[in-house]
């Protein structure tokens, strides 16, 4: 099951006319889909729209009542392909995935879909993973709309606007026979707010009804000569129809005074940022009533030339606010102006940065820079001539460490990388590629394993150049999510077919974990509506991989090390695949902790393991941490005046996964670690035995203590002046 | 320019928007805190908007939540989706370096920002992996936070919450209430916790602790160490001998006395009073060559590191420490075990041929170590991980026996090696004393490089050798001591010794 349950929130999806919905953007989108008579939904998880998939999964019962089909697609390509149902049938369909990487994967199906055109409204909801919090390369999905000719909605980031965009999107799609992409940025997906709800609407034609009356029309198939007709149809009919719909229904919005000499054209998603900058400059009030006219593009593709020309009428200076690069919209607007022979000055990426997120400060600086050139009198005096000097705040950039994401406490992937690190120390560095998923954190310190990632499920494919073999075998890492997404065919199939001699480490944590713990084919959970429990090994064998080793407990670092060593050194020729499986700890804890607490409460015997470090045995060399990086394995400064360096210490968040002990053993580190199992509600015999043991042990201890001196208590605080000078910070040495 | 529009005074209502950012480490419950604040604001008649950047970045990484609120009216205000530098009213940072990050990103400004931070540390990976001490300087962050904020509330919010059986989001929420930065009564905050319906009682207790911490800013101090001071205890006869040693130590020059007593305790705990006498004799040799001119710095440093060198980590010491009564009690406490619980212990040992040979009588051990065949045989027999369940009699008795081998310790191969190493180190360090006092001090301090077990220990010894060897290069230079110190610091920067190699190259370039 997914990391976050929306079961409670899903009830809000039943609200009807006259009710008000308050909650997260993503949930609002789901509600809007149901209000607009969607017939089928699907998608593939990935931040920031993972929760949309989770909400849909949790709302399956409600959707069933309405006759809406939900599909958890195998990939973004599969999701986009599903929209084929709207090509012939007048059924509204919506799919969701992240952008632009999900759009990359989906682009094959999207291009075909766009060529065929649609009859029922087709909506692609894309969570644009750009800026702070993004986990992918910084690109835009916008280019895909331009190349395949589908329309792009980028609504203002508030719930009424986002939900209206769902309605507009379906209608625009149907009016122009073109799929529509609804783009929501990271923060819009998670923005909270309210909107007035309407009753849910069953689809006029359900997919179940449609299949009773199958339809086909070769004119819609992407084959010559129809494909040439499709292209002409896009330009001659679909595009003009779309523009007409956009203008007639006022999809784009104009705010502020009509007769000003300046104006701002903004993507809908940037609207709040623009308003905040204007608010800070005293040019807009709290409700967004602005002194500077704004042309808000809730539709960022296509741009309607006539509408833009109307906005520009009488203006001398116009700023384009367009996040990301390249500046597609600005180029297009410049083109319009040039061809119209306009004299007005267009600003954009000259006053705003070409690359990077348009944060509050960036936007304020950009709008200020624009106004300084276009209308300096509008700026508050303070901005024109700042007189107050900001107080100097000490520079902390050398003090505050970076904190990239990493493996969670008890993560089953950590011991895999510890084992790989040990093999590296033994046999030397290998050529290693990573994949998409939590396991990519293995490329960061302390492990630094893996040097490239080429896409989801493409880890082994990214080592294909080395498939011919050489002095040392290449290793690639592949997650279970990536395996089922694309890896089975593109990576494993590629290796088998090309007689690769390389090694694959499949990291199987039972879920699509990085995206929030959604079930996949090989998940061990029982899922009412999905077929799980399909072992990866079986798929590998089916693909023709002969050398397969399974590790069913990744915490066995020694086994991971030995198995990988065998894969790298065996005489066997051909792909060698290791499947290392243990459940994602985040999900395991979520599942087991309540059960455990209940069992303890009910008086049943429960054994709770946790690790500890004997601080007087630890010498403070931190070798264990360099093979772990676990958040619960940290450092502690002792009061002991004889000790210089902090020692290892395990806090109470430890889940007792066992990695510490395994690593200490496999890497022959030190005997400081111990595991303490606290046994709740022990049995009678057990208690009696423990009592006996304790008495004997206590007697032995007492006997020895009677003969020798020993330390007791804790180290004294140093008398003032006597304590050794504090150690200098670890300065960089050039 | 002919402008129809002129600048107007900013809308006062814009200034009324309360902007609140939360900076946390993924997994700290920033989302829960955000939800509480949001429902609190709505319950008090405010329009409120929250955003976050969820996703994989939240897996233990730095993460941020942002909330804006203003009194509700019939029109919907336009809120921003992200905090802007210089425009944040309340900044909550759930960890000390996140406090620093907030200041660094410009979200904390003296004109407006109430900064509520937790002083506890959740170390970043880069701080932990350094072989030496890589922990970032929290005092620098505190100093910067004091300058940057208009009002500063710093307390160990994590401890306050954990003590109440809750998590940090509760104590931070309490501190927010206690700060008075939001115009809502305490009861409204508590109602928000109640409405969420999960772990309410513990959350309310932690909330109260955070509230008090914010209200009595001056009074909040770190808990006083309640543990009794470190001392030696044992049978009366031994204590008499011990007292004689203490008397001797108290006669040492002032600056040496305190550290020498700590050292003395360590070596007597390691072996016995006779060993303590050896320690003081060694120290006396150094003191005899030192003087009050330099405030006995050399002797104080020697007192520290001779003790560390003499109390080396052999199997006997580890076995002794693992089987002490105080340890069992300490673990019981640390694990939060109740009397009705049993605590079972597993130790992780991995002896190799080296450890076995080092336990042999000195001459025999030397012979075995010199013979690869015998070492291979030992490895075959002993080299594997051993999990000892020390709560069971079998394992306990075995370790107890090993820990009792002190009488035999001074005859072992390990002791012979350690003594030789210690004497060589003292000799080499003091050899430069007449020419360069400061260099001698630094050479003594190089002992810090020796730590760890097995391979880590071996690498430490190699680094120690490299750094000590550099004395020959540096001798006679005015900045020899300074460079020796830099070399040592370089050696502590990474396990492989890359920084050290670079530093040695630098030294070679100028000598």
Automatic annotation (TrEMBL), chain A:
User: Which domain of life does the protein's organism represent?
Assistant: Bacteria
Q: Where is composition skewed (Low complexity) in this entry?
A: 715-725
Name a Pfam family for this protein. Answer: TPP_enzyme_C
* UniProtKB keywords: Metal-binding
Q: Which InterPro entries match?
A: 4Fe4S_Fe-S-bd, HACL1-like, THDP-binding, TPP_enzyme_TPP-bd
The 4Fe-4S ferredoxin-type domain extends over 609-640
Region span, Disordered: 708-734
Q: What is this protein called?
A: Thiamine pyrophosphate-dependent enzyme
TrEMBL record, chain B:
Key words of the record? Oxidoreductase
All residue ranges annotated as the Pyruvate/ketoisovalerate oxidoreductase catalytic domain in the record: 26-212
**Domain (DUF6537) ranges:** 259-467
The domain of life for this entry's organism is Bacteria
**Is Repressor one of the keywords UniProt gives this record?**
no
Among SUPFAM superfamilies, the record links this protein to: Pyruvate-ferredoxin oxidoreductase, PFOR, domain III (SSF53323)
> What name appears for this protein in its UniProt entry?
Indolepyruvate oxidoreductase subunit beta family protein
């Amino acid at each position: 099951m997914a990391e976050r349950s929306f079961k409670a929130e899903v009830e809000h999806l039943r609200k009807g006319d006259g009710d008000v919905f308050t909650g997260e953007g993503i949930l609002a989108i789901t509600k809007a889909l149901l209000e607009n008579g969607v017939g089928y939904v699907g998608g593939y998880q990935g931040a920031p729209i993972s929760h949309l998939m989770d909400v849909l999964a949790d709302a399956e019962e409600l959707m069933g009542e309405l006759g809406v089909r939900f599909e958890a697609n195998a990939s973004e390509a599969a999701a986009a392909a599903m929209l084929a149902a709207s090509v012939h049938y007048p059924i509204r369909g919506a799919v969701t995935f992240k952008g632009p990487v999900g759009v990359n994967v989906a682009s094959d199906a999207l291009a075909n879909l766009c060529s065929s055109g649609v009859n029922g409204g087709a909506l692609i909801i894309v969570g644009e993973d750009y800026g702070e919090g993004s986990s992918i390369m910084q690109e835009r999905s916008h280019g895909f709309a331009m190349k395949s000719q589908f329309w792009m909605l980028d609504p203002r980031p508030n719930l009424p606007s986002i939900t209206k965009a769902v309605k507009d999107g379906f209608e625009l799609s149907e009016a122009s026979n073109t799929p529509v992409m609804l783009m929501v940025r990271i923060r819009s997906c998670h923005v909270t707010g309210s909107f007035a709800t309407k009753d849910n609407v069953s689809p006029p034609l359900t997919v179940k009804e449609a299949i009773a009356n199958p339809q086909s029309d070769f004119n819609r198939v992407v084959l010559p000569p129809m494909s040439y007709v499709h292209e002409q149809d896009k330009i001659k009919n679909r595009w003009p129809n779309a523009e007409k719909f956009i203008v007639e229904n006022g999809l784009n919005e104009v705010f502020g005074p009509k007769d000003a000499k300046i104006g701002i054209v903004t993507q809908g998603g940037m609207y709040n940022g623009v308003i905040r900058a204007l608010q800070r400059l005293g040019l807009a009030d709290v409700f967004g009533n602005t002194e500077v006219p704004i042309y808000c593009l809730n539709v960022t593709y296509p741009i309607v030339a006539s509408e833009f020309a109307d906005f520009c009428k009488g203006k001398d200076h116009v700023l384009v606010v367009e996040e990301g690069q390249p500046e597609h919209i600005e180029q297009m607007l410049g083109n319009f102006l040039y061809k119209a022979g306009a004299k007005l000055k267009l600003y954009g990426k000259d006053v705003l940065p070409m690359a990077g997120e348009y944060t509050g400060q960036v936007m304020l600086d950009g709008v200020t820079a624009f106004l300084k050139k276009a209308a300096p009198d509008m700026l508050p005096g303070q901005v024109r001539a700042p007189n107050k000097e900001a107080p100097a705040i000490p520079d902390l950039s050398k003090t505050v460490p970076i904190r990239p994401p990493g493996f969670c406490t008890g993560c089953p992937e950590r011991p895999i990388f510890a084992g790989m690190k040990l093999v590296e120390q033994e046999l030397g560095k290998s050529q290693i590629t990573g994949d998409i998923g939590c396991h990519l954190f293995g490329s960061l310190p302390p492990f630094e394993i893996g040097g490239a990632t080429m896409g989801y499920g493409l880890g082994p494919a990214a080592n294909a150049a080395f498939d011919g073999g050489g002095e040392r075998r290449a290793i690639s890492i592949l997650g279970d999510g990536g395996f089922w997404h694309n890896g089975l065919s593109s990576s494993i199939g590629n290796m088998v077919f090309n007689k690769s001699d390389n090694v694959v480490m499949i990291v199987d944590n039972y879920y699509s974990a990085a995206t929030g713990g959604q079930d996949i084919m090989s998940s061990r959970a029982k899922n009412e509506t999905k077929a799980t429990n399909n072992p990866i090994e079986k798929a590998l064998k089916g693909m023709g991989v002969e050398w397969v080793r399974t590790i069913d407990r990744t915490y066995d670092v020694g086994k991971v090390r030995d198995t990988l060593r065998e894969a790298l050194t065996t005489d066997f020729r051909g792909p060698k695949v290791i499947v290392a499986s243990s459940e994602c700890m985040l999900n395991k804890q979520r599942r087991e902790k309540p059960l455990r607490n209940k069992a303890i409460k009910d008086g049943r015997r429960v054994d709770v393991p946790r690790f500890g470090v004997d601080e007087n045995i630890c010498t403070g060399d931190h070798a264990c941490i360099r093979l772990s990086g676990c958040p619960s394995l940290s450092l502690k400064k002792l009061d002991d005046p004889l000790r210089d360096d902090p020692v290892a210490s395990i806090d109470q968040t430890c889940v007792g996964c066992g990695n510490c002990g395994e690593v200490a053993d496999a890497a022959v580190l030190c005997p400081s670690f111990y595991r303490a199992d606290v046994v709740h509600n022990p049995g009678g015999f057990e208690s009696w035995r423990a009592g006996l043991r304790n008495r004997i042990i206590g007697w032995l201890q007492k006997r020895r203590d009677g003969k020798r001196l020993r330390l007791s208590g804790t180290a004294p605080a140093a008398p003032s002046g006597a304590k050794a000078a504090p150690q200098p910070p670890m300065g960089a040495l050039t | 320019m002919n402008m129809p529009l002129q600048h107007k005074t900013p809308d006062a209502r814009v200034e009324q928007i309360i902007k609140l950012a939360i900076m946390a480490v993924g997994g700290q419950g920033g989302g829960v805190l955000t939800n509480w604040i949001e429902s609190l604001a709505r319950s008090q008649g405010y329009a409120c908007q929250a955003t976050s950047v969820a996703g994989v970045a939240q897996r233990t990484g730095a993460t941020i939540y942002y909330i804006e609120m203003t009194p509700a009216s019939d029109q919907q205000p336009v809120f921003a989706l992200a905090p802007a530098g210089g425009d944040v009213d309340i900044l909550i940072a759930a960890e000390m370096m996140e406090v620093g990050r907030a200041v660094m990103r410009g979200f904390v400004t003296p004109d407006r920002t109430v900064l509520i931070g937790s002083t506890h540390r959740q170390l970043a990976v880069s701080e932990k992996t350094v072989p030496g001490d890589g922990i970032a300087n929290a005092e620098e962050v505190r100093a910067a936070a004091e300058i940057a904020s208009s009002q500063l509330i710093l307390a160990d919010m994590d401890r306050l919450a954990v003590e109440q059986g809750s998590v940090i989001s509760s104590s931070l929420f309490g501190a927010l209430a206690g700060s008075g930065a939001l115009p809502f009564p305490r009861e409204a905050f508590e109602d928000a916790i109640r409405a969420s319906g999960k772990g309410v009682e513990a959350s309310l207790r932690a909330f109260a602790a955070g509230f008090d911490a914010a209200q009595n800013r001056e009074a909040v101090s770190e808990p006083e160490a309640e543990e009794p001071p470190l001392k030696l205890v044992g049978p009366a006869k031994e204590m008499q001998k011990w007292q004689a040693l203490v008397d001797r130590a108290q006669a040492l020059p002032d600056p040496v006395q305190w550290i020498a007593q700590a050292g003395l305790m360590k070596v007597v705990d390691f072996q016995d009073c006779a060993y303590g006498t050896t320690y003081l004799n060694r120290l006396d040799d150094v003191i005899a060559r030192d003087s009050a001119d330099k405030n006995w710095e050399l002797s104080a440093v020697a007192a520290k590191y001779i003790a560390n060198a003499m109390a080396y980590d052999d199997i006997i010491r580890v076995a002794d420490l693992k089987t002490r009564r105080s340890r069992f009690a300490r673990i019981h406490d640390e694990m939060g075990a109740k009397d009705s619980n049993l605590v079972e212990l597993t130790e992780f040992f991995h002896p190799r041929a080296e450890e076995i040979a080092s336990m042999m009588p000195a001459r025999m051990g030397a012979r075995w170590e010199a013979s690869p065949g015998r070492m291979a045989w030992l490895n075959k027999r002993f080299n594997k991980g051993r999990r000892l369940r020390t709560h069971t009699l079998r394992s306990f008795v075995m370790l107890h026996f090993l820990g009792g081998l002190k009488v035999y310790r001074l005859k072992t191969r390990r002791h012979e090696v350690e003594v030789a190493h210690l004497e060589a180190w003292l000799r080499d360090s003091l050899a430069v004393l007449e020419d360069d006092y400061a260099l001698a001090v630094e050479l003594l301090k190089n002992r810090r490089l020796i730590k760890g077990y097995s391979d880590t220990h071996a690498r430490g010894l190699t680094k120690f050798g490299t750094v000590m060897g550099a004395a020959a290069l540096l001798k006679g230079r005015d900045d020899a001591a300074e460079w020796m110190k830099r070399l040592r610091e370089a050696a502590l920067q990474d396990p492989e010794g890359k920084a050290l190699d670079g530093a040695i190259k630098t030294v070679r370039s100028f000598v």
